[in-house]
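Hi R.,

Here's the chain you asked about this morning:
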Amino acid sequence: MVRQMMLGLRSAGAEVLEYNTDDHPEALDTDGLLYDRGTTGPVWLRWDHLRGPLMDWNPQLVICNAGGLSFQPETAAMLRQRLCLLGIALSDPDVFAATTRHIARNFDFFLTNAPTLVEVYEDLGVPVAVVPAATHEELFRPVPPRPEMRCEVLVLGRAHPDRVEPVRALARSFDVHVYGEGWESHGIASRGLVLGDDALAALASAQVTVVFHLMGSGYPLMKVGLFDFLAAGALVATNRSPLVEPFLTFGEELVGFGSTPDLIAQVRHVLEHPAAAERMRQAGRARVLRDYTWRTAWPGVLRRLAEPPA
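And the predicted structure, written out as tokens:
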């Protein structure tokens, strides 16, 4: 997701220098803790390693995107005298207590993926908004299906507790392909990890793709995968949730379900009505491409950054 956000910013017309911290671990300081991408504490950016690239590039905006990344407070204060700092959290609220509440005040503006934390950040004195719902249409696009990947139902993701019984029930009724970690310990066969063009082919080869809305901690979230998978041309089924309703229309652009029996019934219905399923598939993709791409989302974020402080 971080990379598609960066590519979307470029598509919106910005000149962007990508500094991938996976390629520069020497630029990270975890205060002696194990590096776990900000799960258990902030990941500080070493100014002695970033000074050169920033001085050479001379940007107007620096974005620290996910992974608990932040400059130390004194460095952030110095940088904010001449440029804007934007912080982004993609794993709230799971990392809030350990990480993001400690770093958010180092930024001019902060984006969180957890709507319920907006007021909490505001109480900390942090200018904040929710990460826009968006995808990058060049990364998530329709591709030809592959015969060996054809199935009725596709599930992509880890075996979180809320997913196990619904997937078992799906497997009893349909031809199901599961990709991800942890399923074998529950007696569910996984086809391993699938990435890149292989993931797009899996989406193209399934009649229905199921996206469950709970994080590993049990927190309900509107998953960005909804927009990614719809942009890739998949027919998506997800939990019927008020978090999704402002953005997409259940029954017209995606399939909604409220329980495991309802999921089984909804999947059976779309499989038995392929013409209606195809209309829903096309409508979902059209809606995302029209309203929810990073190319169109970034200008709104940049306008917020340009607004004077309240």
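The chain has two domains: 2-131+294-306, 147-291.

Let me know if you need anything else.
M.
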